[in-house]
Specification:
By secondary structure, this protein is mainly α. The chain has one domain (4-268). It has helices at 4-24, 29-42, 50-74, 81-102, 107-127, 140-156, 160-171, 176-202, 218-238, 244-268, and strands at 212-213, 216-217. Helix 2 runs antiparallel to helix 3 and helix 4 runs parallel beside helix 8. It is found in: Cell membrane; Membrane. Keywords: Cell membrane, Membrane, Transmembrane, Transmembrane helix. InterPro entries: TM_pro_TauE-like (IPR002781).
Length: 269
Amino acid sequence: MPNIEWIVLYMVLGACVGFMAGFLGLGGGGILVPLLASIFIYQGMSIDSVIHLALGTSLACMIISSSASIRAHASRGAVVWPVVRGMAPGIILGAFLTAQVAAHINSTTIALFFALFMALIAVQMFFNWQPKPSQKPISFRGLIVAGVGIGSVSALAAVGGGFLTVVYLGYKNVDMKKAIGTSAAIGFPIAITGTIGYMMSGWSKTLSDPYTLGYIYVPAFLAISIASFITAPYGARYSHRLPEAYLKKIFAAISLVLSIKMLISFVQF
């Protein structure tokens, strides 16, 4: 097993991400992926695989957080289940295929994509930008196409699914609270499919690496999941006490800085 200090570090990271997820309704991947990549580098893991391990492990952690989030939103009637059913096939296809392809993509390229995508999210959060609502109703074909795109992006940027889903549903005139709740439900098939995809694509590449299941680093997954499961309810409890818009800006700034740091680390190697 890894040294106890690494396990403690993973649990602290999980506690912070869980609290932020409960507080802001975000998955925390913008913080989790770059920090995991940095920790894996310090642990001496191969630079060629740390970004894949960070993404795969982050998606695996999302299985726990999204399942808890689904229960909370569904109990308030904030999940539009027909939209979830319509987008799920495309999401599963996009996330699985992209996770397979990602194994053959250079780590620096993925780090660049992640950093640029986090920059997009930061701009959206800072300026609260939303696209002009469409006059066209939601169609099954549109949901499938949107699902493929969202699933594909999510496999390369673990924060992508929730952000893109909320923007897309807002564009389709879905109430914002229901868009957020539906996004939480859509996060579950993204997490499941992305996790399976990274497990399969990395299986032969990490056979000699201890404590891995493909591109899932099991000690980090367990420690982060346990800690985030404990702290997420506390974040949700305190979410109404501080201005959400202000905290989202802080979250976006931190995520962007960490993503740029991750990119610089990869360029240096």
